[in-house]
Design brief:
Strand order of the largest sheet: 3-6-7-2-8-1-9-10-11
Oligomer: single chain
Largest sheet: 9 strands, mixed
Order of helices and strands: EHEHEHEEHEEHEHEHEHEHH
Mean pLDDT: 93
Low-confidence stretches: none
CATH superfamily of the largest domain: P-loop containing nucleotide triphosphate hydrolases
Radius of gyration: 22 Å
CATH class of the largest domain: Alpha Beta
Number of strands: 11
Strand content: 25-35%
Shape: elongated
CATH architecture of the largest domain: 3-Layer(aba) Sandwich
Number of helices: 10
Bound molecules: iron/sulfur cluster
CATH topology of the largest domain: Rossmann fold
């Protein structure tokens, strides 16, 4: 089993381009889109035979007939997701982490659990690639339950298209990854965001490498940083308006540009060599 996570410190760096084309170069593999707030890998894959499963989260439900009003549930909730309103407990679903503690400690067994749908998991196919897409419903604040559900679909070789940034949803996505590929732009802003996500992966002691994307000229601080940290630069992809046009048209370039297939096959070989 090999899980490769593709990350970027910010949106627009080319994370989905790299993740989709790595998966396409790998051939038989599973691509999982963990960017559940904006899952656009499927625009490239256009998967067939798509199956949908609803993803829900468990929330406490209170039986007013049994509740004695002791407020023990409010006291133990470390996420401050419960409040006492008009002499009865009320849950703030956006803050509840579904830990179940309130239900376990209620002395009157007045709490049960109810499932609230928060998103969808789509699974389809593009040739020999299984395409899994996590989709968070609009207005929902935490995509982590959808990401967890999506991560259960891993195969022998899995490419994870992670959420952008360095929030806890990224941490969740890379938790079990064997290797992290950072996609960084060679600019001051790109370098700043890349360092944030690099530190996050460092906390989890992940093996990693960088793909520098849209390079017009070398950005010295980024090159220096990679050298100092002994972070392998897996590829330097020059800015190319023709490539940008193909990506804007949602083309999987590995399938139609031989040089891109060579590039992504080489990245996979470098990662395979390390793992
Ligand atoms: S712990 Fe149970 S009995 Fe006490 S306030 Fe909460 S729901 Fe009511
Ligand atoms: S399930 Fe956990 S997080 Fe949610 S209200 Fe109960 S104690 Fe708080």
């Amino acid at each position: 089993m090999m899980k490769i996570a593709v990350l970027s410190g910010k949106g627009g760096a080319g994370k989905t381009y790299v993740a989709v084309n790595l998966a396409a170069a790998a051939g038989e593999c599973t691509y999982i889109d963990c960017d559940v707030e904006e899952p656009n890998g499927r625009l490239f894959w256009k998967p067939e035979d798509v199956q949908c499963v609803t993803v829900g989260t468990l929330l406490p439900a209170f039986d007013p007939g049994k509740c004695s009003g002791c407020r023990e549930c409010v006291r133990v909730c470390r996420f401050h997701a419960l409040m006492f309103v008009k002499e009865k407990p009320m849950v703030f679903s956006d803050v509840c982490h579904s830990c179940g503690l309130c239900r376990m400690i209620c002395p009157e067994q007045a709490i049960t659990e109810t499932e609230k749908p928060i998103g969808v998991l789509e699974t389809g196919h593009h040739g020999s690639v299984t395409v899994v897409t996590g989709i968070l419903n609009p207005g929902e604040t935490s995509g982590i339950p959808v990401i967890r559900q999506a991560l259960k679909q891993t195969g022998e070789v899995t490419i994870l298209d992670c959420p952008p940034g360095s929030a806890c949803s990224v941490m969740e996505s890379i938790m079990d990854a064997d290797y992290c590929v950072f996609v960084a732009e060679p600019t001051a802003f790109g370098f700043h965001n890349f360092r944030m996500v690099y530190e996050l992966a460092g906390l989890l002691k992940k093996k990693c490498g960088v793909v520098i994307n849209k390079q017009t000229e070398a950005y010295a601080p980024l090159e220096q940083f990679c050298m100092e940290k002994q972070l392998p630069v897996l590829a330097r992809i020059p800015y190319d308006p023709l490539l940008a046009g193909r990506l804007a048209g949602n083309e999987i370039v590995v399938e139609c540009v031989p040089k891109q297939r060579e590039l992504f096959t080489d990245i996979l070989e470098q990662i395979g060599g390390v793992l």
